[in-house]
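Hi W.,

Here's what went into the run:
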Amino acid sequence: MIEGITILPGLDKAGSKERFEKLTLIAGETVSIVGPTGSGKTALISDIELLAQGDTSTKRRILINGEVPAEEVRYNPALKPIAMITQNTKCFTDLSTEEFLHIHAKARKIVDKKIILDTIELANKFTGEKINKETRVTVLSGGQTRSLLIADAILIGAAPVILLDEIENAGIFKQEVIDIIQSTSKIIIFVTHDPVIALLTKKRIIMENGAVKKVLCQNEFETKAAENLLELDKRVGFIREELRAGNEITKELISVSFA
Ligand SMILES: Nc1ncnc2c1ncn2[C@@H]1O[C@H](COP(=O)(O)OP(=O)(O)OP(=O)(O)O)[C@@H](O)[C@H]1O
Ligand SMILES: [Mg+2]
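Here's what came out:
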């Protein structure tokens, strides 16, 4: 059981110590990491993924439930409680989607076959381009791959900690991602440039120059702002889908989407 992940301070890019004592993320908490390009967002979640012990470029240390994780937990992928999905995550195996999930379920000693179809069904909630169980994982698109891996991390991997690095630009439906944000008992960390996702997470870590600059907690105005942005986003999404389908934007369409 993971109740909390603690980040102990490391050094910023100039070698100065980060100015926080410790930062604990607890189960059920959704967190976003924001900050300019190159500010160290990916480096921070990579530290969590690696369960760093002062042995990465940032010199941070990560504790699980307040303790240094056992070596075995760090190095045995089957024991690792953390799943990280990035924009570049790909599957390099010549298997069908069903076989791929089956092997993972077997490795996790899950006997219930239903989980495989459930995982594909969940993945299809995240992506507009449906995945079939016969599709080979090597031919899945980027958006389909990430959708499948997120669903796999949630259901089969049952990872208590999920790290998502800028998946919003990856052809994944935002509403469904937001639903996971709101229903989770996991620790979900989004590295994001998307204001809606940043505003809907409970905690917001702001990065600068390779260091955690500050940590903010969501306030009531932000929740409201996120709702408004989400409405706007739906309208943009509607127009985007029309354009992708090769349609022209007409007066009638505008009046539907902006009604
Ligand atoms: N504390 C640090 N000490 C030394 N190097 C660091 C530190 N933090 C980040 N870096 C390095 O700086 C570079 C940029 O960091 P990173 O890739 O994490 O930025 P980012 O915020 O994810 O940027 P982007 O938005 O472009 O993805 C990387 O090479 C990373 O290893
Ligand atoms: Mg990055």
